[in-house]
Amino acid sequence: MFHASWEQALADLELEVEHAEELLRVAHLPTPQEVAERTAWHPPAGLGPLPAPLLDRARTLHARQLDVAHRLAEQAAVSRRHLAATSALRARPAAAPVYLDLEG
């Protein structure tokens, strides 16, 4: 009983990580609806102990999840740098002084 429940739980998590990997691969920004659907996940209850034959699969999945989390953090940092660069390039308001006259 535990084995089938764990297989399904791992399969569901694998689909989620595949989705996240695909979003990173195509640099797709998810819609608010997609984000809401993804954040509604809750861990399954009553799984019992992880069956030994599924341990390698679970470890591989965990490594993929960590990789996706790392790549998401990197992309967030890149986005923040791009935002800072584009903000710096924005035209200044007409009322802002461009030069300071120190002599006169």
Please describe the topology of this protein.
Elements: H1 2-25, H2 32-39, H3 55-89
Structural commentary:
- The chain has 3 helices and no strands.
- The chain starts with a helix and ends in a 15-residue tail after the last helix.
- The mean pLDDT is 86.
- It is 64% helix and 0% strand.
- With 104 residues, it is an all-alpha fold.
- Helix 1 (2-25) runs parallel beside helix 3 (55-89).
- The radius of gyration is 23 Å and the shape is rod-shaped.
- The chain has a domain at 2-70.
- The longest helix is centred in the C-terminal third of the chain and has 35 residues, at 55-89.
- It has helices at 2-25, 32-39, 55-89.
Radius of gyration: 23 Å
Quick one: how many beta strands? 0
| Largest sheet data | none
Q: Poorly predicted ranges (pLDDT <50, ≥5 residues)?
A: none
**How far do the termini sit from each other?**
87 Å
Which percent band covers the strand fraction? under 5%
What key attributes describe this structure?
104 residues, mainly alpha, 3 helices, rod-shaped
